[in-house]
């Protein structure tokens, strides 16, 4: 039995890799996607265009504006002299934010009275607006601290000092890139397995398998193992790039990481083989793979927290293996979570994988005979 499965695996690899286009599809796109996602998919903002409406020519006002001009998060794109200029700039998206200093800003500060600063922000993209507002608050807070020291003021009775655990610099890339390991591994594994049987049917070689001494379970294993090996290879390459290219820390155990990868691949291969056993053509297999991939990624917590979803949707995500794998990846990369803490995320992937492979085997036998 073992020799027959190995022979079938070799056949699968040869049929997959003999075509130059297939070899390129397996290796090149995941690496390119990782680079694109790693640099483009970020929650950080830089060079936010803003305008200044300064009605105060005093030195304190200039010192505060210098904080904005010296920040890499902001880019001064316009200087306003009349209030009527504000609306067109924001309406036409020329600037995201307008910093307005009233005519008494410096005088109020020097007299010890509270000085008001107005920030007008484009709220059409609420996430971007909140990030820009947080950056502005940080600059104003730094200005307040310096002003308090220079003028010998006691300052506020309490000062908030924030310390971020697991991601001290709050770099969104540290959050996104580990998730990309799971995303791209799922995509490649699904495509390889979802097209395997469909390719045999389309090329007319599936009937030849029926007259061989292979049993259905041997054919199923022979179809599953190449996807498992390719998926493990892809996950390894992407993990190495995440650590050495994007400098994302890998704090946890590599053994725990590969245990999670193995269980995740088990569940993904089961889904892929179910799709492949139902598909008659490669086009149908490809369509079935993408019908699974899109909701699996959206409902995984890759970008949107599952806790923010409606309760019904949260219950549906319990059937999604990528939901658990996201927790495993980020726990191992950023938290250094040990194996026993992640058991609650590992065993559901094992159950999903066993059920999917059993259903795939049942469908495979019924489609064969």
Structure, explained:
The protein is an alpha/beta fold. It folds into two domains: 238 residues, no CATH class; 103 residues, abc type-2 transporter like domain (abc type-2 transporter like fold, 3-Layer(aba) Sandwich), CATH 3.40.1710.10. The chain is 65% helix and 7% strand. It has 15 helices and four strands. The chain has a four-stranded mixed β-sheet with strand order 2-1-3-4. Helix 3 links the parallel strand 1 and strand 2. The longest helix is centred in the middle third of the chain and has 29 residues. It is elongated and about 95 Å long. The two termini are 21 Å apart.
Q: Which structural class do the helices and strands define?
A: alpha/beta
Mean pLDDT, all residues: 81
Count of alpha/pi helices: 15
Helix content range of the residues, please?
55-70%
Order of helices and strands: HHEHEHEHEHHHHHHHHHH
For the biggest sheet, the summary is: 4 strands, mixed
- Beta-strand percentage? 5-15%
What is the overall silhouette? elongated
Entry keywords:
alpha/beta, 4 strands, 4-stranded mixed β-sheet, 369 residues
